[in-house]
């Protein structure tokens, strides 16, 4: 209950419903207190007080929340330090190359003669890694010293280092890492200080403190500063402002703070769109690279994926409502309807076309498939009553078709392809209509891609719901084949049932209901307390 309230508070924050966020955080604080979870209570209290200070309407309220915040931040810092250290440790370990997917590729190249395809998905991931390393190296060189008061001696508004890091985030976040750089510490701190100091010197903090300014007001305010600061400096400040929003949102997402991450991505995207609208009369070289159609399109894809991840991570139907499938679908269709112009792709390396043209299309198609699959699974929210529940067959077939389409678009070495193949197999099991041989062929292909991907990126994990259902289904169907059923027999749509111990499968679904379904083999996905999941034949 407490965790759900905190999650709903994060969602309200992401939707800019500030008072709702404060109220939900307050309820979470009380609930965490009942559960004696001091660290989580402190984190929720800090979130609540920081937000309340920002949007308080009078000085007395600000002072009251500030006093409480000083106490709350001690507990919040303890919890946050644990999460941040774990995250930083992972990124820094990957930066030393040892144990990272990148190190495994390098080893294969050096010791086994392996050569990634120049136009392949793995080359895109390698390019993202190299961009991050280049950006982090430039950040390290850019900052000469950080002083005790947080100020630093550095070259500011030199956007190339942040652009390199952003290219990594926009193309493949798995390439993000904090390099060791010869043992010199503090690269992550330097990056944070560059963003913070550029915000201070550019006087852009006002846009996020107090009320959050709408994008059109921000761009108008920046326009009004041109006579004083010059057009070129204002464009650099604008670029820094958007870069900081995206990098901060990415870090928030990595910490599992879905609401603030989505809020940050939305702010960045709204500034990009509004800047392009108000400055449409300017050549793109004046507006800056950050306003190019490729950058805006990939930023839109970041928001889309963040919404999908938040929806997936939400534990209850009410929490999922904060991250609506309709918005994910709208963004996905916007991406699919906005191919890059041929003039932009001309004379570009193949990797550029994959990263900024093909990859957003892959991801948009995969997100549409996710939305269809979520609608297909909706009947399973009532699966705990001991009765078999079928997926929405129309949505399941649509999801399966979209997952097939996404997988077909992806080159074999792209690390996301195996997930598409397993999800497609799961949805075809739910929709029905595959032969036993057809299911086996799909699973053989998914296993082939999975094994090739695991060589560098590791296995999917001991539990992976789409894969597990497909494998259980094949196992059950092959039992029927061993009993004399033809491998060309058609598998009916597979339902799920949560059965009490000792309850027979026949109590979940009647023979008459099975016979109304087209197909030859009936399989039931069951889950029993203390016995786990199984998919076995009911009617052959």
Helix content: 55-70%
Count of helical regions: 23
Number of strands: 5
Strand content: under 5%
Shape descriptor reads globular
**Oligomeric grouping of the chains:** single chain
Pick out the low-confidence regions: 68-96, 181-185
- What structural category characterises the helix and strand content? mainly alpha
Mean pLDDT: 83
* Major beta-sheet overview: 3 strands, mixed
Q: Give, in spatial order, the strands making up the sheet with the most strands.
A: 3-4-5
Quote the distance from N terminus to C terminus: 44 Å
What does this structure look like?
There is one protein chain. Mean pLDDT is 83; it is low at 68-96 and 181-185. The protein has helices at residues 2-14, 18-34, 38-55, 59-95, 101-112, 121-142, 160-171, 187-201, 215-224, 226-229, 231-254, 258-278, 284-287, 293-313, 317-320, 325-336, 342-345, 350-377, 393-409, 417-431, 436-457, 465-482, 511-515; strands spanning 143-146, 152-154, 496-498, 522-528, 532-539. The strands form 2 sheets. Strands 3-4-5 form a 3-stranded mixed β-sheet, covered by helices on one side. It has 540 residues and is mainly alpha-helical. A hairpin with a 3-residue loop joins strand 4 and strand 5. Among the domains are: 1-95, Serine Threonine Protein Phosphatase 5, Tetratricopeptide repeat (Alpha Horseshoe), CATH 1.25.40; 115-196, no CATH class; 373-540, no CATH class. The protein contains 23 helices and 5 strands.
